[in-house]
């Protein structure tokens, strides 16, 4: 009999011998309830520490204080059949002290790609100086792309610790132009990072700091020489050999599993089989002496091109291309690889001139009228609005976007009137004025100058009667519009009269547009211009 049962029996004998003493029973019940509660608390704590030691069915690990009714019914089953379970003491295990790693939030500001054709950008100006605080979304620098000047914003808060590319210099797309430090204490680390990048010796010395919160100090990389190849591989491995090597191994009776390959990723080559079979490799025949002597005398293409250039004239100066001029030069060189042809068409413009005289006071220009007429004609001849970019297929463009050539100081740009066939003349005029204003300020977004599907170039306002335009890359055709001039014409009855005429020349990509297609398009365009009532609808 355990201590709890003995204690319970003594209390019964002492209390029930005097039935008139009710206080003894109350004290007994109180002490019994107290002992049962303590026992239940100890058991619950043991379950929490190790559930497998519990004598009771598994229940949720929550402490429930029993009621007197529960205590009486539970006492016979628990106290008589089980002992109080020992409580396991937990010892605090000391953790290993971690070596604090220096965290540095140093980020790079990269040269962005402001257009699909941009390969490098030029720093026009910096809004901020070194040491200034930058807020996320704030403009930091103005970058000159191939067609426009655009503001570059920062994506993080921090100090402008170091400027790598100063004003007036260029950097390739993706290169770091500045460093941003999260705190003022990290500014020296950012400057050290900028100095290491500018010196170009980052691979020789260990990196002083990492980017985006990595460990600040990194050990220098040590080159470990690869172990020499052994004659037989250790352990099982998969044999990878070329078909010719397997054939040679079978011919010369060489165990291919014992040959170590010297090819890529351990591939066994025919030379490895010949070496294992003891066959001397064939020596290549020596090249003729005359040919060997002539090889060094052949200049490189770039050297030959530079040598063929005539020397500059006395008193002349060499001016490098601006970013825009370089892009125009590159596009024109690409256009030379496209097979093009040209078709001219004379158009009577008396009705067009009368319409222009009515719309000019309302701010509608002749360029907008011609762009609208071209868009309406392209809607009837979608092949002229198509484009071929890879030389293997062409695509019909879902939108008719008329790009109009605009001359600028030191270059040329083509703002795009998007969906020109769906807008009326007045909306097109407002849009055109906005585009020209942004183009003069070099503030066009890439989608506003590189999304054209057909280009219009108008030199009629300069008195030019005819000219040919060069096809832009990625488009199917370009229209060159000359000046409208009085011309003597004869009608079908043989009577002469004077009418205003302009000559339109279209340059087209012959891979997707043929002569009949372009002739039909020009015929439709002429009908719209000669009867311009539909332009105002």
Quick summary:
The chain is of the alpha+beta class and 537 residues long. The protein has helices spanning 3-16, 22-49, 68-78, 187-199, 243-251, 270-277, 289-297, 301-308, 323-335, 350-359, 366-380, 425-440, 515-530; strands at residues 106-110, 120-126, 133-134, 139-144, 149-153, 158-163, 170-172, 176-181, 340-348, 402-404, 406-408, 411-413, 416-417, 454-458, 477-481, 485-490, 496-509.
List keywords for this structure.
alpha+beta; 32% helix; 537 residues; four-stranded antiparallel beta sheet; seven-stranded mixed beta sheet; 17% strand
Folded structure, characterized:
The protein contains 13 helices and 17 strands. The termini are far apart. Helices cover 32% and strands 17% of the residues. Strands 9, 10, 13, 14, 15, 16 and 17 form a 7-stranded mixed sheet that branches. A 4-stranded antiparallel sheet has the order 1-8-6-3. GO terms for molecular function: dihydrolipoyllysine-residue acetyltransferase activity.
Q: Specify the number of helices.
A: 13
Please outline the major beta sheet. Answer: 7 strands, mixed
Low-confidence stretches: 1-8, 11-20, 51-56, 58-88, 201-236, 284-299
End-to-end Cα distance, whole Å, is: 111 Å
Rg, nearest Å = 44 Å
**In sequence order, what are the helices and strands, one letter per element?**
HHHEEEEEEEEHHHHHHEHHEEEEHEEEEH
Tell me the fraction of residues in β-strands, as a range. 15-25%
Task: State the helical fraction.
Answer: 25-40%
Overall 3D form: extended
What number is the mean pLDDT?
74
Q: Name the structural class.
A: alpha+beta
Number of strands: 17
């Amino acid at each position: 009999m355990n201590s709890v049962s003995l204690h319970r029996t003594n209390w019964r004998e002492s209390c029930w011998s005097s039935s008139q003493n009710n206080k003894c029973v109350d004290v007994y019940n109180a002490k019994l309830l107290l002992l049962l509660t303590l026992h239940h608390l100890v058991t619950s704590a043991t379950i929490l520490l190790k559930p497998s030691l519990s004598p009771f069915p598994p229940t949720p690990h929550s402490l429930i204080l029993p009621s007197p009714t529960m205590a009486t019914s539970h006492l016979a089953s628990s106290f008589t059949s089980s002992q109080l379970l020992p409580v396991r003491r937990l010892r605090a295990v000391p953790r290993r002290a971690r070596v604090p790693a220096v965290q540095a939030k140093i980020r790079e500001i990269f040269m962005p790609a402001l257009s699909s054709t941009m390969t490098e950008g030029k720093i026009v100006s910096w809004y901020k100086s070194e040491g200034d605080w930058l807020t996320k979304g704030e403009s930091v620098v103005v970058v000159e792309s191939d067609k426009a000047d655009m503001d570059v914003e920062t994506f993080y808060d921090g100090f402008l610790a170091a400027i790598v590319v100063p004003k007036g210099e260029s950097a390739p797309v993706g290169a770091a132009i500045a460093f941003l430090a999260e705190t003022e204490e990290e500014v020296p680390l950012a400057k050290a990072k900028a100095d290491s990048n500018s010196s170009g010796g980052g691979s020789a010395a260990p990196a002083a700091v990492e980017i985006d919160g990595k460990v600040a100090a990194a050990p220098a990389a040590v080159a470990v020489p690869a172990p020499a190849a052994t004659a037989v591989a250790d352990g099982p491995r998969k044999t990878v050999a070329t078909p010719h090597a397997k054939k040679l191994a079978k011919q010369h009776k060489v165990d291919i599993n014992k040959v170590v390959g010297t090819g890529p990723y351990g591939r066994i080559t025919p030379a490895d089989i010949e070496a294992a079979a003891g066959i001397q490799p064939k020596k290549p025949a020596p090249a003729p002496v005359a040919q060997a002597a002539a090889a060094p005398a052949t200049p490189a293409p770039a050297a030959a091109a530079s040598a063929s250039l005539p020397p500059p004239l006395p008193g002349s100066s060499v001016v490098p291309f601006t970013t825009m001029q370089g892009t125009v030069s590159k596009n024109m060189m690409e256009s030379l690889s496209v097979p093009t042809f040209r078709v001219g068409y004379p158009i009577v413009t008396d009705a067009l001139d009368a319409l222009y005289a009515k719309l000019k006071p309302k701010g509608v220009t002749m360029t907008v009228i011609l762009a609208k007429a071209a868009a309406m004609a392209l809607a009837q001849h979608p092949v002229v609005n198509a484009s071929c970019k890879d030389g293997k297929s062409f695509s019909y463009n879902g939108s008719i976007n008329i790009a109009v050539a605009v001359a600028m100081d030191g270059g040329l740009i083509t703002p795009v009137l998007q969906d020109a066939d769906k807008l009326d003349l007045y909306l097109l005029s407002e849009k055109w004025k906005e585009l020209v204003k942004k183009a003069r300020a070099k503030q066009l977004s890439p989608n506003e100058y590189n999304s054209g599907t057909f280009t219009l170039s108008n030199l009629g306002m300069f008195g030019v009667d005819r000219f040919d335009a060069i096809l832009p890359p990625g488009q199917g055709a370009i229209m060159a519009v000359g000046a409208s001039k009085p011309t003597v014409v004869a009608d079908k009855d043989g009577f002469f009269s004077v009418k205003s005429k302009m000559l339109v020349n279209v340059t087209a990509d012959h891979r997707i547009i043929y002569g009949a297609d372009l002739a039909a398009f020009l015929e439709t365009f002429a009908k719209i211009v000669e009867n311009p009532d539909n332009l105002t609808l």
